[in-house]
């Protein structure tokens, strides 16, 4: 009844040395910069383009203080920065060794899609199609934020899955999208063997290894955050998923969103997103504030133009934009994001257990027996494994509803009056009855009796005479 979360993997190896040597380029630019400054020369167009590319790529590498002073018009980049990321980042064959879904081997290229995040180029599974999450007609057309094209099938954010027959319930992973969660079985729902090339750039994120893993709802645009799970080399990372569900009664629609502190899916319009979630709202808000303050946006932020993309030269301004957004949200001023939670939401969490994973040792054993032809290629990588499954087959859910409605209020009023005064609404009807209908009937009866008595008195008087 609950979708399997969207899982996003971000390699910590950001740059393939064979394609772009970040360290070598840094040393060359430092020497050229010193030479140009020493001789008082002006940087030529080729140098400026190379420096701009370097500062664009440095956003996903270790941050450092810029040493080049460029004119304002050269301090920005454009959609070419994402093309550079796609060129230099590890591709499928550099990241994935094998993938299994529900115990069966599957193609990693079919299971995972590329997505642009603050970590650079990452890979995500079970995310909705870009056309289902984003208003593509409002966005720039020079590059894609999300490559997923798998359309929604048999599921909605508000009402969940619509199982039509028992056969669909037995095998929902092939009949519905996003993929539903499955009860615990003999093997994990998802098993991924990951690999990282031995030779890495010495300056580009060299102090971190392995992969960052993010889990989010399939309706959220996959993005990086401070909260992540680590998959380290030569280890098996076993993730036991859990989740919390919060639903809201339709009777709450009559209340203002600020009162109930949540939005229904059709209540809040976002310029760049079709689906409202708090995460999507915050991304759009940060994009707008960053462009307002810095005159550019970061490469992963949805925006209508790709001509003004920030580089590492704008790191301080981007940090200031984030602080402004947080300040505006906390102060509740005239311009705030109002990114309230969704009224119907699923929040995921996980526990992770790590054990050793000595695949290289197994490769050596197989080579000794079978003489593997590609032993050198296999040994040029560090391997790790990620297993994902639900911790329990059932979880408790919560429902938000009104504590006191009009009917509840009237009932409580009647109860209090009955308790304090011996009064009930039946007593009220009796009072009305005695003051109106009973009084009229009594008066009418008295008048008829008086009339009958007068008539009898006249008859007696006539008989005497």
From TrEMBL:
<keyword id="KW-0739">Sodium transport</keyword>
<keyword id="KW-0813">Transport</keyword>
<dbReference type="InterPro" id="IPR001873">
    <property type="entry name" value="ENaC"/>
</dbReference>
<feature type="transmembrane region" description="Helical">
    <location>
        <begin position="403"/>
        <end position="435"/>
    </location>
</feature>
<keyword id="KW-0406">Ion transport</keyword>
<comment type="similarity">
    <text>Belongs to the amiloride-sensitive sodium channel (TC 1.A.6) family.</text>
</comment>
<dbReference type="GO" id="GO:0015280">
    <property type="term" value="F:ligand-gated sodium channel activity"/>
</dbReference>
<keyword id="KW-0812">Transmembrane</keyword>
<protein>
    <submittedName>
        <fullName>Pickpocket protein 28</fullName>
    </submittedName>
</protein>
<keyword id="KW-0894">Sodium channel</keyword>
<keyword id="KW-0915">Sodium</keyword>
<keyword id="KW-0472">Membrane</keyword>
<dbReference type="GO" id="GO:0005886">
    <property type="term" value="C:plasma membrane"/>
</dbReference>
<dbReference type="Pfam" id="PF00858">
    <property type="entry name" value="ASC"/>
</dbReference>
<keyword id="KW-0407">Ion channel</keyword>
<keyword id="KW-1133">Transmembrane helix</keyword>
């Amino acid at each position: 009844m609950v979708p399997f979360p969207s899982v996003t993997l971000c390699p910590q190896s950001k740059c393939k040395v064979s394609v772009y040597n970040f360290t070598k380029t840094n040393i060359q630019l430092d020497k050229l910069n010193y030479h140009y400054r020493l001789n008082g020369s002006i940087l030529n167009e080729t140098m400026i383009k190379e420096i701009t590319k370097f500062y664009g790529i440095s956003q996903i590498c270790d941050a450092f203080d810029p040493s080049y002073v460029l004119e304002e018009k050269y301090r920005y980049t454009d959609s070419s920065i994402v093309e550079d990321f796609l060129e230099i980042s590890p591709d499928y064959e550099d990241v994935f060794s094998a993938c299994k879904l529900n115990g069966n081997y599957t193609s990693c290229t079919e299971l995972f899609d590329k997505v642009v995040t603050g970590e650079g180029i990452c890979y995500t599974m079970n995310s909705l199609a870009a056309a289902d999450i984003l208003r593509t007609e409002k966005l720039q057309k020079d590059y894609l934020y999300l490559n997923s094209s798998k359309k929604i099938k048999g599921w909605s954010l508000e009402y969940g899955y619509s199982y039509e027959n028992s056969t669909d319930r037995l095998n929902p992973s092939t009949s519905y999208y996003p993929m539903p969660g499955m009860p615990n079985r003999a093997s994990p729902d998802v098993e991924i063997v990951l690999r990282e090339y031995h030779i890495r750039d010495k300056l580009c994120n060299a102090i971190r290894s392995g992969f960052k893993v993010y889990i989010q709802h399939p309706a959220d645009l996959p993005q990086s955050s401070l909260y992540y799970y680590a998959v380290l080399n030569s280890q098996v990372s076993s993730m036991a998923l859990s989740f919390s569900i919060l639903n809201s009664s339709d009777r709450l629609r009559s209340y203002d969103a600020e009162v109930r502190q949540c939005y229904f899916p059709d209540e809040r319009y976002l310029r760049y997103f079709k689906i409202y979630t708090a995460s999507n709202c915050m991304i759009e808000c940060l994009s707008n504030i960053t462009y307002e303050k810095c005159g550019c946006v970061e490469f992963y932020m949805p925006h209508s133009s790709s001509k003004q993309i920030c580089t590492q030269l704008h790191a301080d301004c981007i940090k200031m934009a984030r602080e402004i957004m947080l300040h505006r949200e906390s102060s509740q001023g005239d311009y705030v994001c109002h990114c309230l939670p969704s009224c119907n939401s699923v929040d995921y969490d996980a526990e992770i257990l790590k054990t050793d994973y000595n695949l290289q040792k197994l490769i050596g054993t197989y080579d000794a027996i079978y003489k593997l032809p590609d032993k050198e290629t296999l040994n040029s990588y560090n391997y790790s494994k990620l297993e994902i499954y639900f911790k329990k087959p059932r979880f408790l859910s919560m429902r938000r509803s009104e504590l006191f409605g009009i009917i509840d209020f009237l009932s409580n009023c009647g109860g209090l009056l009955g308790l304090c005064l011996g009064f009930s609404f039946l007593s009220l009807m009796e009072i009305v009855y005695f003051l109106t209908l009973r009084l009229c009937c009594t008066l009418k009866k008295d008048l008829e009796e008086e009339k009958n008595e007068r008539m009898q008195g006249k008859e007696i008087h006539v008989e005497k005479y």
